[in-house]
Design goal:
Number of helices: 5
Distance between the termini: 34 Å
Strand order of the largest sheet: 1-3-2
Mean pLDDT: 89
Radius of gyration: 18 Å
Keywords: DNA-binding, Transcription, Transcription regulation
CATH superfamily: Winged helix-like DNA-binding domain superfamily/Winged helix DNA-binding domain
Structural class: alpha+beta
Shape: globular
Pfam family, one: HTH_5
GO molecular function, one term: DNA binding
CATH class: Mainly Alpha
Largest sheet: 3 strands, antiparallel
Strand content: 5-15%
Protein name: DNA-binding transcriptional ArsR family regulator
């Protein structure tokens, strides 16, 4: 029995490049694709937070939170601002909070 690729599968057009907005969306979702990073974004949806606040809220280690914050900063999902001796993190775009919060709500409905 012959199998057919799904519509839109890259096998349909092996040399086709994805549209730039699809590529950017894919990179955004890849950067968010970790439970700790989703938790960080969920916490930051409520406003800026310092690392120790994220550690307390998520119940994970400080090095792990810092590692995930680095990924989110590199992907320009969060920004960092120094406040005296500490760094506060915030979302660069509130649309990201909506994406993550909607995904969490949707997963909870399953």
């Amino acid at each position: 029995m012959a199998t057919h690729p799904a519509p839109g599968d890259q096998q349909d057009e092996p040399h086709a490049e994805p549209h730039p907005e699809l590529q950017a969306a894919s990179e955004l979702l890849r950067a968010l694709a970790a439970p700790v990073r989703l938790g960080i974004v969920r916490e930051l949806a409520g406003g800026h937070r310092r690392v120790h606040e994220l550690v307390d809220a998520l119940g994970v280690s400080q090095p792990l939170v810092s590692q995930h914050l680095r990924v989110l900063r590199t992907s320009r999902i969060v920004t960092a601002h120094r406040r005296s001796r500490e760094i506060e993190y915030s979302l660069t775009d509130e649309h990201i909070a909506h994406i993550v919060l909607d995904a969490i709500r949707h997963a909870g409905e399953a």
